[in-house]
Amino acid sequence: QWKGRTGFATNRGRALDHVAVSVDDLDATLARLKQEGVKVLSGPRKADGLRSGFIEAPDRMELELVEGQARKP
Fold first, then answer.
1. Mean pLDDT for the stretch of residues 16-31
2. Which of 13, 15, 27, 39 is the right S-S partner for 56, CB 3.0 to 4.6 Å?
3. In this structure, how many other beta carbons lie within 10 angstroms of the beta carbon of residue 30?
4. Looking at per-residue confidence, does 23 or 43 come out higher?
5. Within 10 A of 23 (CB to CB), how many other CB atoms are there?
């Protein structure tokens, strides 16, 4: 419901709470985005064999950056 809202609300905790995209170099990408003013929500971490980090998009959607998962064979 949009009544009374003045901006976007976070999507954390909803049915679709984030989208993931692949990057070649997670550390460099997070550093560049942070330098450009993007809010980094969590730094590089490793879980289940994947390195990832989270940023907040301009519309407050949570985006996951996953290192190297979309490489072509």
1. 88
2. 39
3. 20
4. 23
5. 19
Supply the pTM of this predicted model.
0.71
Residues whose CB falls within 8 Å of the CB of residue 27, separated by 6 or more in sequence, listed in order: 44
- Per-residue confidence (pLDDT) for residue 31, from 0 to 100: 96
CA distances from 29 to 3, 4, 6, 45, 68 (A): 37, 36, 31, 14, 12
Helix (H, G, I), strand (E, B) or coil at 50: strand
Element (H, E) at 55: strand 50-56
**Six-digit token pair at 48?**
């289940």
Name which of 38, 39, 46 is nearest 67 in CA terms: 46
CB atoms within 10 A of CB 69: 12
